[in-house]
Amino acid sequence: MLTPTDDPRDDLRDGRPESAAQRADRNWADVLQELRVLQTGTQILTGFLLALAFQPAFVDLSGPQRTGYLVLVGLSALTAILALAPVALHRAVFHRGVKPVVVRFGHRALIAALTAVAVLLTGVVAFVFDVVVGVDAAVVAVVVLVVVILVLWVVGPAVLRRLSGENRVSGESRSGDGKGRG
Predict the structure, then answer these.
(1) What is the pLDDT averaged over residues 105-130?
(2) CB of 119 within 8 A of CB of 142?
């Protein structure tokens, strides 16, 4: 297992005078803050979904709408599990000197949770549009939402990475000044 001094990726030149342990602590704090934001949104969506089943109009849903609803509830639970996985891992390996590994796992779990949230948000919007307006409106809403998510979550960050000249492999800017990280 890699320790902070064994991991070559821990010696990123990003202009910060910090040890590998300090960098891991800072990165872990960043992951935790992002998880807090993600978890709040997931909890709100989950609460919304769970409350729907107890509404009088719920009995009017068609079979496919009920199936879609149950898929969304399951996806909501999966999203919460993904968002909590780094915290569970941190608790399991607390004081074992593997924080850089926990940070990398947290990063990957956060990406997976964001992907699940994107699907969940899209599904909830599709469900609501289908129930309120109809299938055609749901399809339009989903297409618009998918485009917005792709632009803001995938394309925009990719463009910013390219414009900043960040080299993701070494963590250095292409100019070699070490200031390409944000």
Answers:
(1) 94
(2) no
